Amino acid sequence: MTDKERIATELDAVRRRSLALLDPVPDDDLVRQHSPLMSPLVWDLAHVGNYEEQWLLGAVAGTRVAAHLDGIYDAFRNARKDRPQLDLLGPVEARTYVTDVRSRVLDVLERLELDGDGLLDEGFVYGMVVQHEHQHDETMTATLQLRTSTEYPLVDITDVGDAGDADASLPSEVRVDAGPFLMGTDLEPWAYDNERPAHTVDVDSFWIDTAPVTNAAFVEFIADGGYDDRRWWTDEGWAWRQKAGLQHPEFWAPDGAGGWVRTRLGRVEDVPPHEPVQHVCWYEADAYARWAGKRLPTEAEWEKAASWTPDGVKRRYPWGDDPTPFLANLSTSSRFSPAPDGTFPGDASPWGCRQMIGDVWEWTSSDFMPYPGFRSFPYREYSEVFFGTEYKVLRGGSWATHPTAIRTTFRNWDFPIRRQIFAGFRCARDA
User: Fold this and answer.
1) Same domain, 61 and 163
2) Which parts of 292-352 fold into alpha helices (H)?
3) Which of 14, 58, 150, 403 has its CB surrounded by the most CB atoms within 10 Å?
4) Structural domain harbouring 392
5) Hey, CA dihedral for 56, 21, 421, 428, is it positive or negative?
6) What confidence tens digit (pLDDT) does each residue in 116-151 have?
7) Residue 153 resides in a domain
């Protein structure tokens, strides 16, 4: 497949995904704001079209369709809580707009040469736009989870709870040897600026959980009074726990019989014990790790455990460099929830870690900072403006992440209070 054929295929796939997510949703729910943390769904749809127009028509070909929409769909100018007050395109108009932009983009692609440095090198700008839309699809999935009006019809009612058995033979943790490894990438053509440049990091030996912390394990933390014991929380975490009234992961509730239920895309179901816990913030993850006598891994530890072989070879994915067949629970699985620990026997990292790609984003202890030699490209607002101690790094992707938008070097980040994202964690400890 040529670069142009791959780009056209990926553009088509992501647009099909976006429209499939939204097609079952009534127009009233597309324009409604379901939480001040999230945009109206129709804003996200038109935003991905506007982003595509700016980069794949404006930057690449010097032509525009609707430049007057830039201010409305500028994510940095308009906070999410304020977006319902904007003069947004309606559902029909938004679909028409993104379709028109895409048709023009494909016409431009046909006559371009994908070579040289900068935006067109190995189709970088197209990869950026594809990944951007997939990321918004995950954001829209989080909005659908916050939607309370009706069940989401794309979820198969037969595919709930534990879809497989946990692997009881898995050790609880694995040891990763001390020594240097190559962190980040210079070789991934569609990698973002914050993944670059590749650089050597020396890491002490450590132990890391084989799989993410499960719902059953987190229930033990709750039952032991973990939310009410000041010892396990940082000062900022304890203050937030009190202010937000945290007592359990978001979307959980007691079942009245000593157990727990959760709401998943409008359906109430028993909390599956063997799935990775999700919808916990960084403060909750950190408190659990302290309670367990461990800590959260640094992002360097996480990446070494996920990608570096004992004989010094870097892997794009924990199992190797080949994305097909994709050995992880991602958006292409259509499960719409994490999978039980050990479900994918072929996904093991070189050190024996499981589920490091997919299922849940994993909180790390690291602040979001630039790598040595970082260079902002192609715009500061993707990474550079977020560097600092306010954000914590997440790694690995979730069940709502697309394979095109994840790899062992990919860095996500968010505020430590965020719980609507599909985030969980695994623990580590010094060796």
Assistant:
1) no
2) 299-307
3) 14
4) 158-431
5) negative
6) 778 999 999 999 999 999 999 999 999 999 998 778
7) no
